[in-house]
Design goal:
Layout lengths: L1 E6 L3 E6 L10 E10 L4 H6 L13 E9 L11 E4 L2 E2 L5 H4 L10 E2 L11 E5 L3 E3 L6 H19 L7 E5 L3 H12 L4 E6 L2 H9 L4 E4 L5 H8 L6 E5 L4 H10 L5 E4 L11 H9 L3 E4 L11 H11 L9 E5 L1 H11 L7 E5 L4
Parallel strand pairs: 10-11, 10-13, 11-12, 13-14, 14-15, 16-17
Antiparallel strand pairs: 1-2, 3-4, 3-8, 3-17, 4-5, 5-9, 6-7
């Protein structure tokens, strides 16, 4: 089978690999339809951030069931599925308390084991979400990143009636904008340093946008003043500057959900830290996208939003292509952030 393989040093190539086989009675063999590049994959490729090399990444994928082990009783050949990449042990004290993301013995598809940037992948049944009838395989490839924002909203007790402010208008941020609108936010604000992203944010539902490369935190705060109450701020960019910005612009008693993963140290000046105390902010750490019952209500909620036609995906996609096109698009990044989702399309193979 064709597999997009990452080698040490940031080399991404298409290689022929053996098709994986069912090894355990609870395994499922999936023929990949679509597999997306995640922002977290970029340091794995270009900054020696993978657990091993060579590796086939990919944890945002969809596909169809080809075969399954004897202990799998709720899937049929041809069923459409999406990847649930975390593989908790389900037995440690953390898992027993439904803190799956804090499992001490977890594995992760497309990071600690080969993932979906290939024609086929074999995974546990618990690593698949069966897509409802009528769902498209393209939608399935976006299910995992959608649940990232839905998990943060869940931790915050929902967003209905709140002033939702999203810092970072990449794929996660753009999906969060749409989810917040669909789930009853009073208004949605997007903040970024990229004008194209901000324009897209407006097109898909942001009522207000701010360019933090041209506006200071003080200027943004002043403009937000009439909407300073009942704020829920989602920081999705994952930089020290945007975390500090979230604290600086927050209104009284705001909730600040930290979603983005930092790759540099965060050093907060005492004046910035004092915002947490003086404004009595609630800081929420949001890690991955799982809850009980496994894999969590976020996953069904994402599927429901698709069923209700509340989410638009096409504006978020930069490129879609076969294995070689995908590899070329990834190599072209050179370690820089994506300007839109890069998708591997295996449906024509």
């Amino acid at each position: 089978m064709k597999s997009v393989v990452v080698h040490a040093g940031g080399k991404v190539v298409v290689e022929e690999k053996p098709t994986p086989q069912i090894q355990h009675p609870g395994d499922v063999l999936v023929k990949i339809a679509y597999s997306g590049l995640c922002g977290s994959d970029i340091p794995r490729i270009f900054a020696e951030g993978a657990h091993y090399y060579p590796i086939t990444l990919g944890h945002e994928f969809s596909g169809e069931v080809v075969s399954y082990g004897e202990k799998v009783g709720d899937l049929e050949v041809g069923d459409a599925v999406a990847c649930v990449p975390l593989q908790p042990c389900f037995t440690c004290p953390e898992c027993q308390r439904n803190a799956f993301s804090q499992c001490k013995h977890y594995q992760f598809i497309g990071s600690r084991s080969d993932g979906g940037h290939a024609e086929y992948v074999a995974v546990r049944r618990s690593s698949l979400f069966k897509l409802p009838k009528g769902s498209s395989l393209l939608q399935g490839a976006f299910l995992e990143p959608i649940t990232v924002s839905l998990h943060a909203l869940k931790l915050a007790g929902g967003c209905e009636g709140k002033e939702v402010i999203i810092i970072g208008a990449g794929t996660i941020g753009q999906l969060a904008i749409q989810c917040a609108n669909a789930l009853g936010a009073k208004a949605v604000t997007a903040i970024d340093i990229n004008q194209q992203r901000l324009q897209l944010a407006q097109e898909i539902g942001a009522s207000f946008v701010y360019d933090s490369s041209t506006m200071s935190a003080g200027e943004i705060t002043a403009d937000l003043h009439p909407r300073r109450f009942d704020q829920l701020i989602l920081e999705t960019a994952g930089t020290p500057q945007t975390v500090a910005l979230a604290l600086e612009i927050a209104g009284p008693h705001a909730q600040v959900a930290l979603v983005g993963t930092l790759h540099k140290d965060l050093l907060l000046p005492s004046a910035t830290f004092s915002h947490i105390l003086r404004k009595e902010l609630t800081i929420l750490g949001s890690w991955m996208n799982y809850s009980a019952p496994w894999p969590g209500s976020e996953w069904q909620q994402a599927a429901t939003l698709f069923e209700q036609k509340k989410l638009r995906l096409e504006p978020l996609i930069a490129t879609t292509g076969d294995a070689q096109t995908f590899a070329d698009s990834v190599n072209a990044l050179g370690g820089q952030a994506m300007k839109g989702k890069i998708l591997l399309d295996m449906t024509e193979g």
